[in-house]
Amino acid sequence: MKHDKVMNVAKKRGFLWSSFEIYAGVAGFYDYGPLGAILKNSIINKWKNFYIVKEGFYEIESPTVMPEEVLKASGHVDNFTDPMTECKECLEVYRADHIIEEMINRDVEGLSNEELTQIISEEKILCPRCGNHLTRVWNYNLMFQTLIGAKGKKTGYMRPETAQGIFIPFKRLLRFFRGKLPFGVVQVGKAYRNEISPRQGVIRLREFTQAEAEIFVNPEDKTHEKFDEIKGKMLKLYSGEVQLAEGEPVEISAGDALDEGIVSSQILIYQLYIAQKFLREIGIPDEVIRFRQHLPTEMAHYAIDCWDVEVYTERYGWVEIIGIADRTDFDLKSHTEHSNEDLRVFIEYDEPKQIKKLAIKPNMSKFGPSFKGDAPKILKVLENIDAKGVKKSIENDKMFNLQIEDNTFELLPEHVNFVEIEEVVRGEKIFPHVIEPSYGLDRIVFSVLLHTFTEDEENEREYFKLPKDIAPVEVSVFPLLNKEQLREEALKIKNDLREKGFIAEFDASGTIGRRYARSDEIGVPYAITVDHDSIDDNKVTIRNRDNLKQKRILISDIAGILDSLLKSRLEFDDIN
RNA sequence: GCGGCUGUAGUCUAGUCUGGUUAGGACUUGGGCCUUCCAAGCCUACGACCCGGGUUCAAAUCCCGGCAGCCGCACCA
Fold first, then answer.
1. Among all strands, which nt has the closest C1' to A548 (CA)?
2. Which nucleotide minimizes the distance between its C1' and the CA of A18?
3. For chain A, which domains are there?
4. Residue A486: which nucleotide is closest by CA–C1'?
5. A134, CA 20 to 30 Å: which among A89, A199, A355, A398?
6. Rounded to an integer, what distance in angstroms lies between the CA atom of residue A541 and that of residue A534?
7. Distance A8 CA to B56 C1' (A)
8. Closest CA to A44 of A322, A437, A441
9. Smallest Cα–Cα separation from A474: which of A457, A491, A498?
10. Following DSSP, what letter does each residue of A206-227 receive, concatenated?
11. d(CA A125, CA A270)
12. Each residue's pLDDT expressed in tens, for chain A with a length of 576 residues
């Protein structure tokens, strides 16, 4: 199986291996080895080039440990959890809500664990497998819990996503961007989920790296300034509708996808497009990716449209590597409610609006003595109440009953006057919507390894055909034969290249063929070979990994040519 | 978390059933010889019984527990 070959080479040559190996390992944790760490960094750098440089977003970094309040507001403390129950006899574990819904066909969403436990015993729900009793319901939360501080009074969690770290300082970010939408903020970092039983290698980790962008937009304007440039680009879309009809994904242009209402907005399609472009540039070809829309049933309650970028893998089938969602205003709204900070944005109208409206003007000389201590509270409610309704009631019934929490206050004609006021409204405060491309970097690194792995039968070699700008080692330097004179010249060249900033490796072990094979295997795009002629003519051979072609170039030109090759300013065949 | 299968150098594997010499081989890797461009050959070195307990004079081998991997079930904001 190709999968096993890739993982074996990755382990052998220092890309990836499971963590804590000498203590037998722990499922869901992986190390990046010497080459893997460089590769991952190169991919991250390219990602930053896409999102920070080209899109103009800015990066922030926030803590991986978060206090409970944040994750309470985001819904993770309550919702990132599953009610579980276990059979007392056979120890089979079930989702408590699922088993109830299945057995007695009753919707139990939102019920507490106690209520679920009660239903299980009242309805005599037994283990479907062996017919024995089930335990009381408990919550399994997928977050790693910890305690903050020496006394351990404050509960904290390892963050389950980097996104929350961007929503929390929204007010400061908004100010940084001088109050104007749209703007984007990115964060690259670790996130943690204590999966019940992760068993898909690097596909399901308990500690993993996310690269997320949160793009804050005006809900009324989800257009994109560059949409015209990309509307002709083709995407392979697997819409919810097609999935339900059990059809096949369709190739469609960005423009048509929008016109036909398959994708909900320009900005969302634009994000799909740059995701595809990014994947292509790191060596994952279009043929193995598709965009799959979330079905209404699987969509998170806060999203109105969500597309997964999936890559085909031999072992796991289609795997989500990027999620691109329209998260709407869910998070900012929720944090506003929980924190009492106003996380809205003021949107100025093109033209100020003249608005005539009815306002309630309290008659304080009567108002104060009547309501005494409750007066301030009542005044506050009256500011935002529908004045017309109040006026109508007062005119017709000579009174208006105002409900505040559990109390009813009787508003009489003497308490209030009504005035027509005219005011200029320059804009309004709104919650921005959030478009979120979220990259699972570990899955992406794995996909890159999987899809760049090349079995070249003609030349009897297997190697990672990594794009040259993300290859961990940029150039290998060899003496043709392991002779003192050639060794010395090769070492000199290697050191010179390192001095000039290239990641260069020297190898004199075995035969020249063996050295090329080792170099190819880890995806080094170019190799320099010093032979006897080099001593006389100051020229060396440069070899192209992908087609084994060779050229002779001056030693003094190596760095310049290499730089041009790596940056794609020069094609190998055009070397003179 | 449950059940089944599996666990010997970096990799692949012999040995395990039927306990018994220094755990054998191949590939890889390091050093050397040879070699004027694609994993050749020769010499040489390094390197392993998943962990813990038990049975036994003696455990890679038998038993128990744990851990990990694979497969199935369950889970997967």
1. B38
2. B68
3. 2-65+160-331 (3.30.930.10), 82-139 (3.30.40.230), 349-429 (3.30.720.200), 473-574 (3.40.50.800)
4. B36
5. A199
6. 9
7. 40
8. A441
9. A498
10. SEEEEEEEEEEE-TT----TTH
11. 50
12. 788 889 989 999 999 998 888 887 788 899 999 999 999 999 999 999 999 999 999 999 999 999 888 998 888 887 777 777 777 665 666 777 777 777 777 766 667 777 788 888 887 887 766 667 777 787 778 888 888 877 666 888 999 999 999 999 999 999 999 989 999 999 999 999 888 777 788 888 999 999 999 999 999 999 999 999 999 999 999 999 899 888 999 999 999 999 999 999 999 999 999 999 999 999 999 999 999 999 877 777 678 889 999 999 988 889 999 999 999 999 999 998 888 888 999 988 888 887 777 777 777 777 777 777 777 677 667 666 777 777 788 888 888 887 777 777 777 777 777 777 777 888 889 999 999 999 999 999 999 999 999 999 888 899 999 999 999 999 999 999 999 999 999 999 999 999 999 999 999 999 999 999 999 999 999 999 999 999 999 999 999 999 999 999 999 999 999 999 999 999 999 998
Closest residue (Cα, C1') to B50: A24
Q: Which residues contact A557 (CB under 8 A, 6 or more apart)?
A: none
Per-residue HEC secondary structure of A146-179 comes to EEECCCCCEEEEECCCCCHHHHCCHHHHHHHCCC
Query: Within 10 Å of residue A398's Cβ, how many Cβ atoms?
Result: 9
Dihedral in degrees, nearest 10, Cα atoms A216, A218, A221, A225: -40
Which nucleotide is nearest, taking the CA of residue A545 and each C1'? B38
**Looking up tokens 């030349």, which residue turns up?**
A459
Single-letter residue type at A111: L
Q: Are A170 and A331 in contact (CB under 8 A)?
A: no
Contact A285, A310 (CB under 8 A): no
Q: Which residue has the tokens 């090769």?
A: A490
Strand B: which positions are within 7 A of a protein CB?
A: 1-2, 7, 10-12, 28-41, 50-51, 66-71, 73-77
**Amino acid identity at A349:** Y
Reading the block at residue A159, the tokens are 């963050």
Query: Shortest CA distance to A519 belongs to which of A474, A485, A480?
Result: A474
